[in-house]
Amino acid sequence: MEWIILLLLGLVAAILGSIMGLGGGIIVVPALMMLSGYMPILHGITPQIAVGTSLLIMIFTGLSSTLAYLKQKKVDYQSAFIFFGGSGPGALFGVWLNKDLNTDIFLIIFGTFIVLVSFVLMVRKYILPLKPAKKGVQRTYVNRAGVEITYGYHPIIGILIGFVVGMCSGLFGIGGGSLMVPAMILLFGFPPHIAVATSMLMIFLSAILSSVSHMALGNIDWLYVLALLPGAWIGGQLGAAINRKMQSDAIVNLLRVFLIIIGIRLIYQGITGS
C-alpha cells in the first residue's frame, strides 16, 4: 500500500507540475517529509535525501513534459538555454547550501518559501505584465486566436533571475518553475503557455545538474526513485495534454490553498519537531 501511495504521489505531483510549469518537486518534497511520520518506509528520511530524490525524479518529469510541449511547438529554446545559464550555477550553489541543513530548520525555511509561492500564485493574475524590453532578446508568438504577442527581456536579467531560481531548486528540491513562470509572465511578457513549456525545459536541464551533485553526495534513495518514477513520467505527459486544453485558473486556485496548508504544516512541524 505504501508503494502505491508513492506511485500516486509521483503521478499527482507531475501532473500539477507539468500543467503549471512547476516541476512537481514543490509537492514531492513536503509530502515525503510529512509522510515520514506515518509510513515506515520513509522513517528517518532527511531533507537532503528528500531533495536529492525529488530532483532525480524531476529529470524524468521535465523530460516527459518537454517532449510533449515540443510536439505542441510551445518551447522557446533560446530563452530556456539563456535562463539555464543562470539556473545551472544557481542549482549547484543550492546543493551546497542544502548539505548542512538540519531537518527542523529546513522545514521552517521550506514552509515559509511555500507560503510565499502560494502568495505569488494568488496575486500574479492581478499584476499587469511589464512592457517587453526594447533591448536584448525579442520574441513573437501567434496564439490560437491568431493574435501576435511580443515579449522580450535583457539576457543579463534573465540569467540573474535564473540563478535565484536554480538556487531554490538545488536547496529545496523543486523545479523552480514556481518562481520562474510568474517572472517570465509578469516581467518579460511571456504568454502563459509558452512560459510553462519553456520553464519545463529549463527545469529538466537544471535537475540533471543538481541531481548529479546530490548523487555524488549520496543524497538519493533509489527505492523511492523507483516508486515515484512511473507516475512522474506518465504525469508529465498528462499534465502537458491537460495544459493544452484548459485554462489553469481552477488548478491555480486549488494549488495555492493546498500550498498554504502544506507550508503552515511544515513550519509547525519544524518548530515543534513533530
From TrEMBL:
The record, for InterPro entries, names: TM_pro_TauE-like, TSUP/Inactive_protease-like
Alphabetically list the UniProt keywords: Cell membrane, Membrane, Transmembrane, Transmembrane helix
Compartments in which it is found: Cell membrane; Membrane
Annotated organism of origin: Evansella cellulosilytica (strain ATCC 21833 / DSM 2522 / FERM P-1141 / JCM 9156 / N-4) (Bacillus cellulosilyticus)
Q: Which GO cellular component terms, listed alphabetically, does the Swiss-Prot or TrEMBL entry include?
A: plasma membrane
Q: How does it sit in the membrane?
A: Multi-pass membrane protein
* Highest taxon above the source species: Bacteria
The protein, known as: Probable membrane transporter protein
Report the family membership: Belongs to the 4-toluene sulfonate uptake permease (TSUP) (TC 2.A.102) family.
Q: Which residues cross the membrane?
A: 49-69, 81-99, 105-124, 145-165, 171-190, 197-216, 222-242, 254-271
Which Pfam families does the annotation name? TauE
